[in-house]
Each structure stands twice: as structure tokens, then as C-alpha cells.
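Why do we care about 3D structure at all? Because function follows from shape, and shape follows, mostly, from sequence. That is the central idea of this module. The next example makes it concrete: a single protein chain, its amino acid sequence, and then its structure expressed as C-alpha cells.
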Amino acid sequence: MPEIQSATQSGEMTQRFIELVMMQAQQAAMFLGHVPNPQTGQPEVNLDFARMFIDQIEMLQEKTRGNLSADEVQMLTNVLSDLRLAYLQASKNPAPASSQSAAPVVEAAPEQAAVAAESEPESRKRFSKSYGS
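And the structure:
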């Protein structure tokens, strides 16, 4: 009987972990302009916020290494790959073509991209020190 409870708890924990990762990924996608902002209904690009959510998912990947099932590892790897590619594309082309509310973001985007590009190696360095093995 304890084996059945353990399997059920494991399944619930897997589902909760997947939900956590997907919530973080959805937030990153929203700030990459892939998902409309629920308040405005318009896509919004904010690379700093998108990077923060991607970094949080990377942290989860590092901190859970060796404790996940093969399916969880694959899901996490796929989510990070997709978000990294979307981030790279958004940083090269910061303006969503169909967004009118993104105009102020477009004007500030070159400055934000420069700040993000300058601070990324440093923040990356801190990240690996904080969460590395």
C-alpha cells in the first residue's frame, strides 16, 4: 500500500514541477512578445524580464539535476532551448510587427539590448558561481 501512495505523490510532484516550469516559461514568452499581455491584450517585449525568467528556469535545471525523471529532463531541456532561441531572435529584432503598444519599447530597446549585452557575461558569471556544483 505505501508503494501506491508513493507513486501517487510522485505523479503529483511531477505535475507540480511541470506546472512551475511552464508558468515561468509563459512569463518569459510574454516578455518576449510571444504571448499578449493579459492586461493590455498587446504583445510586449522586455528582454530584461524575459532573461530573468529564463535564468530562473536554468536555476531549476541546475538545482534539480539528478533528481528528475527522463521526461522531466526532456521537458526542461526543450523549454529552455525554445526560450533561448526566442530570446536571441527578440534581441536581434526587438519590435513585434503587429504591436502598436510596443513602440515605446522599440525606442528604448537598443539601450536595453546594450545593457543586457554588457551585463549578461557578468550576471552569467554570478549565476554559475551561485548555482554551480
